[in-house]
């Protein structure tokens, strides 16, 4: 069995348009993930926050490497920065092919500090913070959807 890994990253949105177009692109990203991730044994969560994609993906190491290569080549993503890529015991987002944590106008993380930092420990800390934040937001978001 392949070892299970978690990859957390942030990237700057390069879609130059209004909120409706950006929301449509996010829906497209989520639809693609819902279609493709189950067969790849990939789970994860996505947050769009203050002009940045904040995402955690979980799955076999080789699959994540290939998937992340595609993300880096995707014209919607700029300044792609890995926060962590590490083995994990269990998934944080095992229930979702790609959970959606929402769209926020204000960036909740210090994106500039993360992007400019060469400090690996700071990036890993930001990655853990991203995982816990996405976990909390996904739970809230799913609760809102269930009660709607």
Within the CATH hierarchy, at the fold level, what is the topology? Alpha-Beta Plaits
Distance linking N and C termini = 39 Å
Q: So how many helices?
A: 4
* Main sheet: strands, sense, barrel: 5 strands, mixed
Based on DSSP secondary structure assignment, what is the total number of beta strands? 5
| Range of helix content | 40-55%
The string of secondary-structure elements, in order, is: EHEEHEEHH
Domain module count? 1
CATH architecture annotation: 2-Layer Sandwich
Organism: Pseudomonas putida
Domain BLUF: 4-99
GO molecular function: blue light photoreceptor activity; FAD binding
Protein name: BLUF domain-containing protein
Describe the overall structure.
This protein has 148 residues and is an alpha+beta fold. The protein has one domain: Alpha-Beta Plaits (2-Layer Sandwich). It has four helices and five strands, in the order βαββαββαα. A five-stranded mixed beta sheet has the order 4-1-3-2-5, sandwiched between helices. Strand 2 and strand 3 (52-60) form a beta hairpin.
Task: Give the topology, please.
Layout: E1 4-13, H1 19-40, E2 43-49, E3 52-60, H2 61-73, E4 77-87, E5 99-104, H3 111-116, H4 120-147
Parallel strand pairs: 2-5
Antiparallel strand pairs: 1-3, 1-4, 2-3
Describe this protein with a few key phrases.
single chain; 148 residues; alpha+beta; Alpha-Beta Plaits; 5-stranded mixed sheet; 4 helices; 5 strands; 29% strand
